[in-house]
Amino acid sequence: MVFAFKKETMPTTKRPPTKYQPKGLSVLYEDRDIIVVEKPCGLLTIGTDRDKTRTVHTILNEYVRKGDPRSRNRVYIVHRLDRETSGILILAKSEPAKIHLQETWQETDKRYLTIVHGSLSPKAGTISSYLTENSAFTVYSTPDQTAGKLSYTEYTVLKEAKGFSLLEIHLLTGRKHQIRVHMSEKGHPVVGDRKYGKGNDSYSTLALHARSLSFTHPVTGRRLSFETGIPEFFTRLVGKIELPSP
């Protein structure tokens, strides 16, 4: 796991005692205003009306309260990753910080790694469409510009092996299930995608990882960059992976 700061290194807050450290999450960075974590696949970012299981949100709320249920400390969701997607998440420690990060989200550089079925042509490009969602919570592209939100997914093929393609994704917008839908509609679904992928996909792990984020700190204005390693599942699929610097 690697993380780096642009400009000056920022002071971090004192960590709570070991017994209050978050279980199942890696804290990459923390200060008075934000927490940056690496989320494993299988963990929800925040609960839904249909699912009240343990989430990033509940784990980190317990963490910042340091075992005191009466504490008014809490974390705020800035953005989400799908349950099946692993990688970097930013959370805020105050509502003003959350609002600032969300209002400047288009300035955040978001890079993903994914492995899809088949060989793409061309080897680099941008997929764009208007995305909308039906009553079954399935996202799809629509020609109706009034019904969907314009979405852009920039991709580059990094490696091809064993019938798979390893892609770097530059997420230019951040719609729900955007990468998964765009790759599926292009005819190259993400490996392990049971919702939008091939019906005979035998992989139970989704090959989608939020690899790096670069954003402006909501209080100091400094530019911060974070990068994670390559999931072991990816190397099992395509072998050794050498990545360009984000």
Q: Give the radius of gyration.
A: 18 Å
Distance between the termini: 14 Å
Using the 3D structure, state the CATH architecture.
2-Layer Sandwich
Output mean pLDDT. 89
How big a fraction of the residues is strand? 25-35%
- CATH class category name: Alpha Beta
Number of helices: 4
Describe what this molecule looks like in 3D.
This protein is of the alpha+beta class. The chain has a single domain (2-233), classed as Pseudouridine synthase (2-Layer Sandwich). Helix content is 14%, strand content 33%. The protein has helices spanning 56-65, 95-103, 178-185, 232-238, and strands spanning 2-5, 26-30, 34-39, 76-77, 86-92, 109-117, 124-133, 139-142, 149-161, 164-171, 208-216, 223-227. Strands 1, 2, 3, 4, 5, 6, 7, 8, 9, 10, 11 and 12 form a twelve-stranded mixed β-sheet that branches. β9 and β10 form a beta hairpin. The longest helix has 10 residues, at 56-65. The radius of gyration is 18 Å and the shape is globular. The two termini are 14 Å apart. The model is unreliable at 1-11 (pLDDT under 50).
